[in-house]
Amino acid sequence: MNTMFPIFLKMSEITTLIVGGGNVGHEKLAAILKNSPDAVVTVVSIEFGEELLDLAKDFPSVTLEKRPFEISDLDDHHICLCATDDYDLHVKIQEECNKRKMIVNVADTPPLCDFYLGSVVTKGDLKIGISTNGKSPTLAKRMREFLEDALPSETQSLLDNLKDIRDKLTGDFQDKVKQLNDITQKVFDKKE
Ligand SMILES: C[C@@]1(CC(=O)O)c2cc3[nH]c(cc4nc(cc5[nH]c(cc(n2)[C@H]1CCC(=O)O)[C@@](C)(CC(=O)O)[C@@H]5CCC(=O)O)C(CC(=O)O)=C4CCC(=O)O)c(CCC(=O)O)c3CC(=O)O
Ligand SMILES: NC(=O)C1=CN([C@@H]2O[C@H](COP(=O)(O)OP(=O)(O)OC[C@H]3O[C@@H](n4cnc5c(N)ncnc54)[C@H](O)[C@@H]3O)[C@@H](O)[C@H]2O)C=CC1
Fold first, then answer.
1. Where's the Siroheme synthase central domain (predicted)?
2. Considering every ligand atom, which ligand is closest to the CA of 145?
């Protein structure tokens, strides 16, 4: 059983620290920015890879700090992702995050992670997060591709219409819930 609880974070409202700016650091930063171009991220790394430098320059809310990690880097951040090649450092950061009640992801060490990144299907405002409980990130990626193809292109206009209707509905909460359930039932019945 996958006991993880998915939530959707407003990355512009919290601050994220990535430690390590090589290949894995680049992948994690790219995954965040693809979803949240307004994410407030600090990347601390002794060296930065070309790809990460190239990506970061287009995002004003990303700050790069070229130096070794310091414990005080954790002071100003809500979540932390470890992406160096130093396992002992990752253990130290994970312990310190736990002490501070910060949540941490350690890219290549699932047992040290408080949260995983997921595959993300996006159709306009609709977003679906996928996790395989860490069993197969490749299957998560394939499921994303499958769902991206399967979701109808009119998904966004359906959402826009439902938002208009939702704003115009009157009556008490129960009435609104019933009307919205009836309307969406009709949409899905039509498709069968
Ligand atoms: C536990 C987790 C923790 C975390 O990183 O957050 C984790 C861990 C590990 N990944 C590894 C490898 C690969 N990861 C990918 C891809 C993705 N990995 C992602 C998430 C997660 N990866 C979390 C679990 C998510 C879940 O619950 O399913 C995705 C979904 C999201 C993202 O990272 O953005 C993104 C797909 C995005 C997309 O395209 O949709 C590919 C495939 C590829 O790149 O084509 C490979 C190579 C093939 C393979 O090994 O499967 C290794 C072995 C490293 C080694 O060999 O040493 C570990 C460590 C281990 O498992 O021990
Ligand atoms: N590249 C990949 O696709 C994969 C890598 N891994 C593992 O993930 C880890 C990272 O891999 P890569 O990103 O490829 O390595 P990398 O060598 O490209 O990047 C590591 C980065 O960490 C930085 N760093 C090291 N010590 C630091 C410190 N004390 N403070 C701040 N920054 C520090 C380095 O300057 C470097 O930029 C490695 O342990 C690797 O074995 C696992 C699976 C796949």
1. 124-149
2. 1
